[in-house]
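Page 42, continued from yesterday. The earlier attempt failed because a stray header line got pasted into the input along with the sequence. Redoing it now with the clean sequence only.
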Amino acid sequence: MRAVIVFVLSALLPLSLCHNWDPFAWLYGRQSQGYYYASLQADAAGGACPDECDCPPSFPVAMYCDGRGLKAMPTIPSRVKYLYLQNNAITAVPDSALVNATNLVWLMMHHNQLTSESIGRKAFLKLEALDRLYLQHNNLTSIPSNLPRTLRDLRINHNKIEKVTPADLEGMANLTILYLNDNAVTDMGSSLRALKSLTLLDISGNKLTKVPESLPDQLHQLYLEYNSIDALPESFLGHFTQLQYIRMAHNQLTDKGIPANTFNVTGLVELDLSFNKLERIPIVSTTLQHLYLQANQIKEFTLGSFCSVVDVTNFSRLQTLRLDGNEISQQDIPTESSLCLRQASTVEI
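This time it went through. Structure tokens are written below.
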């Protein structure tokens, strides 16, 4: 019996080599006969893979064209859902470039040479399933027109955008992640009002002089560092229910510009106010875990900023406190601080 099996397999092997057919495909788990032939059919559906790209038969809905030195958009088969075009030298996305790619879910075009003028106004109009769009590290001066309302993750950082208008983000109620950092934005107006689902907003490294209006209620992370903000609005954090991380390092904040009890809100986990112009420690919630105040002009260690009452049951949950680079020393810390800051593992003065 064993001899018969060997004979049959030895007869099939030359045949398989001649016809690119693998007689052992049924042994490969996911490469079972049904999956194997379905993959080959899907690979041919919707057009051939361009020579300059890779379309793996095992993942036929993806097309890899990254790092190929491309200067123009390739032809995209209609079956493609995940398109990788990053790290090229593509200069334009004309209106016709994506008309066949209506099934796209991910479109990665970061690290190219795109300008706002070179992206057609209708280029993204028919991408009704697009979930992620990465356009960072290009030469854009504005947010492209007619972005799909299905987007949940938009990364347009490291460009040259100067202004964001309400029309740019209108109707994008599904957007949860927005990276706009490292641009040249001076004003955002009420452009964020429509982003009802936004949980992460990074607008650091811009030219903002004030906190943007109408910050979405569902924010979980807010990054505003490296701007020129010198004051915060009244009830800055009053309407947030999910916000845990705020970073406002490298701004122009002063004591006068921070209303009383601004940061005395439950829910905050991390607050970074380093490299500003503060002279006093602001009052923070006892639930805050990480506070960064280094490189300010703080002259006094006020224990009341952390604990309004100091006893066995009332104490701060701070784990990290950085006060180095200010005008106080270790001798300025009152002895009772060890009771208030009993959970702090890192205190740098």
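Notes: Residues 1-43 have pLDDT under 50 and may be disordered.
Reminder to self: strip header lines before submitting.
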